[in-house]
Amino acid sequence: MRSSFVLGSALAATFVVLGVFACGGDDDTRAVADAGKVLADGAVVAPDGARIEQPTPQKSSKVNATDETVDVLGTTRRYVLAVPKTYDAGRKYPLIVALHGDGDTGPGFRAALGFDDLAGDDAIVAYPTGAVDLGTAYDQNSDQLLSQAVIDAVKAKFSIDGAKVWGFGYSKGGFMLNEIACRKPGVFKAMAVHASGAPDAPKAPTEGIDFPVCAGILGLPVLATEGQFDMIHGTEYSAQFWALTNGCSRSQRSATTPAPCQRHDSCPAGKPVVYCVAPGFGHTPIWDQAAAVSWGFFNAL
To answer: Which of 14, 31, 215, 241 is the most buried (most CB within 10 A)?
Structure first.
């Protein structure tokens, strides 16, 4: 396992790809342009003076996105599933379950986050709708059971690497991931949580600080980020909790890449804990590098 992660040339190339657009209707507009003229803003003016707008460029996508449903405790729940267009059943894919914040939806979070644009050919990404109930017991909690139901449904249809089922969560979605990791260890093999805190569980003192106690908890790689002006949701406390759970140093961290991030020292192989403070950001919107940094973190595992 690599001890640090970088965005690197591959990720940089991804961002270049995101800037490439495919335009439609070129033949029609060129024909008009030949007879008339093209304005500085790209519009075409025909010989009779009529203004003809260029077609709106459409961003190309490497995935097929479908609306899916799954039954959870007798209720139909929805999620968007993004599968690479180059999907190969002979290959094992990581599965990323991305949980939105309060008031959002799976489709809305997907549009804002752009995670499957980054993952492209290399992962399957699911965006469930619903991350509200943090308190109800796990076995009766439709929102917490939703993640497992989605994972099971996707595994039944596609070739998934069971060791690379990763969770991405923002705000209440990040709190949800922490609750699942506390109440049902092993559902996720790694997680990236943004602007959210530790599990809400009974606490006991450890190294002079009260931390949650989760029965049977398993250590796992954790990336925890928050905005510079949003340090009220307990993200650093969450990182310290996972550092202790994993056997890392709680208080000692070292700079890692990208620059806003620090890695907890002395973590065992395969269980890094990284904490990042995004300069200039508050709670909303989500850090504009959250998806990219998370993808880099996952890829380094």
So the answer is: 241
